Amino acid sequence: MQKRLVLDEEQIEIILRRFCHQLIENHDDFETTVLLGLQPRGPILLDKIVKLLEEISGVKVPSGYLDATFHRDDFRRRDFPLKANETKINFLIEGKKVILVDDVLYKGRSVRAAMDAMIAFGRPQKVELMVLVDRKLTRDYPIMPDYYGIRVHTLESQHVLVEWAENGSEKDAIWIIEKVNP
């Protein structure tokens, strides 16, 4: 298996700080802004951003986790049943500026599904997308991130692997690996 490092722990930290400063510039005092981490991989990134935002600005931004499993357009087309994750949103998003946070933007299907799922919590004023990695050339839907850490050009035969220390990895890191064909 071929594995190529895209971002190391130090580079990821720089990107997270940049995200926080961009959010501060674009959202003033965060009175009408909320952040939602897309399950299953967005919550770790979200928690890091919320913690850094509080350190940098002193403001605790409302945040939650959103699961869009049952809103996916390929939900019934799978050979195996999908397992839902927890949706943890204890506020309404009616009239709010919502920032969806995920680790990798690939086909755009998860983001499209998340937009459907979040409507259960109200109609947002605006929706923005923040991703650590934008796989630019693989989109099925015309979805582009408002904030991205790095853009990578990948083939269908490649996979972007995001490793977090919180999940048991040695360090935070992002890799591109060749998919293994059985």
TrEMBL record:
Q: Keywords on this record?
A: Glycosyltransferase, Transferase
The organism's superkingdom is given as Bacteria
User: This chain belongs to which protein, by name?
Assistant: Bifunctional pyr operon transcriptional regulator/uracil phosphoribosyltransferase PyrR
Q: What is its EC number?
A: 2.4.2.9
Which molecular function terms from Gene Ontology are attached? uracil phosphoribosyltransferase activity
Domain Phosphoribosyltransferase, first and last residues per copy: 7-165
InterPro entries in the cross-refs: PRTase-like (IPR029057), PRTase_dom (IPR000836), PyrR_bifunctional (IPR050137)
